[in-house]
C-alpha cells in the first residue's frame, strides 16, 4: 500500500519558509527595498504592532511606484501597501489557504497565531500543486456562473474531471481534497448568489461545514452537513436574527441540492433552526454534548466536532474552534463514552481471518466500507484529536499529529493511514460504479482481485489494531 500526503491537510505553519519582515508604516521605500533584497524576499507586512497587520507591501509594488508613479525613496511605505490583508490562523490546513487565495484573487495571506501575533506571509509558491489537475478551467467556470443551473453544470464537470483523475492514479487524499476545494468554491458561489437575493440582518455570520466536508474527505456520493453561526449584538436579538437567516439558509440548501449535494437525511443543515445558532448557543450545544454524553450527543459528536468555516466571517468559527480545543480534555467521561461507542463499530474481519458480512438479505455477502471500514479510523482520529487539543479535522492529519502526541510508533501511524487510504480508494471505485444511496459504499469481496482481498483484510486488521489501542487507553 502507498499513502501520498495531500497538500490540503498540511498545516500552514509547516509550509512557510520565508523570513518574516515587518515594516513600520513610516518606514521609507529605501529601507523596505533594502531589507527585502537583503534576505531575498518578495513581500513584507506593514504593522505598528505585532498583532495588527495593516497591509502587505511587495518588492514589485515598490519598484512600480518608483518607476511609474514618481515615488521617492524617502516616501513612507504605507502609501504603497495593499491594505486590509486577508489573515488566516497559522494552524489552518493548506486547503483553506488555497481557497482564500483563489476567492480573494490575492497573492499573499498573513498567518497569525492564536493570540493574534503575526507569524508570517504565505504566497501561492508555498503551496505545491496550487492549481493541479486542470482546476484552473473549472475555477473559471465556477466564478463566471451567475445562476444555480450554471453551478449545477459546473458540479457535473468537477465530478467528471475527478473521475478521470482517479482513473489516472491520483492518490485518494489528494483527490478528496482536490474535489473538496472545488466543491467549496461551488458552495461559496451558491451562497453568494442566494445572499444577493436577501436583505440579510447586519450581523456577523458564517456558513459552517461538518462531517466529511468538514474533514476534507468528500467523495463522489455525498450529502450536505452544514450549519450557520452568527453573532447578535444582544442575545435577546437571537430569535429575530435566526428567523431572517433561516429563510436564506433554506434556499441555499435547496440550491445545493439542485447542484448535486443531496439534502441531509438527518436534517443537519443550516436551514434547520437547530443548526442556525448564535455563538453562545453553539457553545452551549458543545458543552451540553460533553456534559451529558447520551446516545444522541455521541451521534452529534461524530458530525459536529469535524467543523470548519466555509463562507462569511471565518473568525466566528475560528474563535469557536479555539474555545472548544481545551474542552474535551476536561470532560473525560465524554471521551470515554465516545471510545465506547466507536468500539461498537467492528471491522468486517472474523476471528479466523475471514470476512464478515452486514448486508443482510437485501445486500447479501457485502460489506459497508463506510461503517465497517473507514469509520473506525475516522472515529479514533477524532477522539485522539479531541483529547490532545489538535486543530486539524482531516482524518489522516489527525492520525499523524495524534501519533506524535501519543508517542505512537511512526510505523504504526503510517500503517493506519495507508489502510484508511486503501479503504477510501475502494469506496470511490464502488461509488463511481453507481447505485442507490444505501449500496454505493458496499462491496462484495468476491468482486475484488486476490491481491485486493488480501490488502482489504490487512486494512481491517489495522482497524482492529487502532480499536485495541482505543480500548486499552479508555476502557481497560
UniProtKB/TrEMBL annotation:
Single GO MF annotation? [protein-PII] uridylyltransferase activity
UniProt cross-references to SUPFAM superfamilies, sorted A to Z: CBS-domain pair
Keyword Ligase listed? The answer is no
CDD domains xref list: NT_GlnE_GlnD_like (cd05401)
Name the chain's protein.
Signal transduction protein
- Please indicate which superkingdom the organism of origin belongs to: Bacteria
Keywords in alphabetical order, please. CBS domain
Question: Where would I find the CBS domain in this sequence?
Answer: 15-73
